[in-house]
Specification:
Blueprint (H helix, E strand, L loop, with lengths): L1 E6 L5 E7 L1 H4 L5 H15 L58 H17 L3 E4 L9 H10 L5 E5 L4 H7 L5 E5 L5 H6 L2 E5 H11 L1
Parallel strand pairs: 1-3, 3-6, 4-5, 4-6
Antiparallel strand pairs: 1-2
Helix pairs in contact: 2-3, 4-5
Length: 206
């Protein structure tokens, strides 16, 4: 089993934690990570872009001018896509961009991303994250102690002070361990777990 250092809030090692090889020795598979990230981003799309076809734009109740004799081209409606303010041909319509990839592939992609963070020494485990008040200043002080600039902090939603304290800090985000996704893991430089959140994640990924 791999052994990781657990730090206190000041950044000093307080204990060692054994983690299963099957989670943090998983090979880094770039293509699997790529597929999982593309899937995540596609599933975030709202798909609400829309344009009006010639059947939906206003006007066009009658023929603009007679068919012959005016010297102008034939026209049947001001809704024509060829006209200004006319309908749009093949424009975007509301659609669902979501699609699924196998659960095992998604889990293995997350293992790959976590293994990559560990190999780069960008994964930290803190015994507990205690912020006494929901204040940005306190969160900044804690981040400074650990020398963190860009960080994804993983804990439980019950730690309300943490989530409220970091939400206005650029390049820092807090997520619940059950909501951890591969995009956020790769988006931020450092990955910081509370010990409880880390143990919960390892149990799910075994």
């Amino acid at each position: 089993m791999k052994v990781l250092q657990v730090l206190d809030q000041s950044g000093k090692p307080v204990q060692e934690l054994k983690v299963p090889e099957e989670v943090f020795s998983y090979p880094v598979k770039d293509h699997l990570i790529y597929e999982a990230v593309i899937n995540y981003l596609a599933n975030q799309r709202q798909g609400t872009a829309a344009t009006k076809t010639r059947a939906e734009v206003s006007g066009g109740g009658r023929k603009p001018w007679r068919q012959k004799g005016t010297g102008r081209a034939r026209a049947g409606s001001v809704r024509s896509p060829l006209w200004r303010h006319g309908g749009t041909i093949f424009g975007p319509q509301p659609r669902d961009y979501r699609y699924a990839i196998p659960k095992k592939a998604k889990k293995n992609a997350l293992k790959s991303a976590l293994a990559a963070k560990l190999s780069e020494n960008l994964l930290l485990i803190v015994d507990q994250i205690n912020i006494s008040q929901p204040k940005t200043k306190e969160a900044l002080s804690w981040l400074k102690n650990l020398n963190l600039d860009s960080a994804l902090i993983v804990d439980d939603f019950k730690n309300e002070n943490l989530f409220r304290s970091v939400r206005n800090i650029p390049e820092v985000k807090a997520v619940d361990n059950r909501k951890l996704n591969i995009y956020d893991v790769l988006r931020y430089r450092w990955l910081v777990f509370s010990q409880q959140a880390f143990n919960s994640l390892v149990e799910r990924l075994k």
